[in-house]
Amino acid sequence: xxxxxxxxxxxxxxxxxxxxxxxxxxxxxxxxxxxxxxxxxxxxxxxxxxxxxxxxxxxxxxxxxxxxxxxxxxxxxxxxxxxxxxxxxxxxxxxxxxxxxxxxxxxxxxxxxxxxxxxxxxxxxxxxxxxxxxxxxxxxxxxxxxxxxxxxxxxxxxxxxxxxxxxxxxxxxxxxxxxxxxxxxxxxxxxxxxxxxxxxxxxxxxxxxxxxxxxxxxxxxxxxxxxxxxxxxxxxxxxxxxxxxxxxxxxxxxxxxxxxxxxxxxxxxxxxxxxxxxxxxxxxxxxxxxxxxxxxxxxxx
Length: 301
What we know:
Elements: E1 4-10, H1 17-22, E2 29-34, H2 41-47, E3 51-54, H3 62-71, E4 76-81, E5 84-85, H4 88-98, E6 105-108, E7 110-114, E8 117-118, E9 129-134, E10 138-139, E11 150-151, E12 155-157, E13 162-165, H5 170-191, H6 200-215, H7 222-246, H8 256-281, H9 285-300
Helix pairs in contact: 5-7, 6-7, 6-8, 8-9
């Protein structure tokens, strides 16, 4: 029988790690890398017979995850965060696959709970993550915060999701956006030799809103979907603003006619997606034809 080690990297997660650990009673080994927590995270992990390693709270979060992988002894490793939970159905599927598999790793759907609700559309579902891999076959590159685990070999996808108790408050979203994620995305953008242009202050957020709310079906999640699409648009705007900051707050003249033209273009794009979404939702053939004509006219005008 193949053995499974679960590796959790955590910092000040006393409020959430207990629920995570309680969902792992099927694992052969639990390793918790305590990133110098100032609360009782490590003590709680010890109560669940986890092997606790205390490491410096490295700004590059995945360094300590790789440390945990290096200390795991199981044939397979499952990488988790303290705010994630493994349901029994997924635990069964994991055990079935690791005992009858020629794969190097597995992607797992992630069920994101945001602001108290399972979000089933937009960026948030199925949100597959590469989390299960053979020991010695997986690692994080540690080049930036937003990165996938890299696995040497062929991977496959499991069917059952794990649960991610994601953002619980708008303040939490904004705080992480500011201090963690946008900083990483700004540096990635700068490394691509991005050609800074003022109109991206409009295009970035509008593009992300349209993608999440319309193209990915975020509207189906009701007000949650609208708020999350708006927050994602704000995220993109902040990335642009921080790039501008890196440019020493460059002064750029913008004639009113150019600004008006850019806003009108984005208005047409949004109208296009509104009509496209209505076409997709309509059950009437004649209504689809009428909406298609309106969409064509809106784009041409």
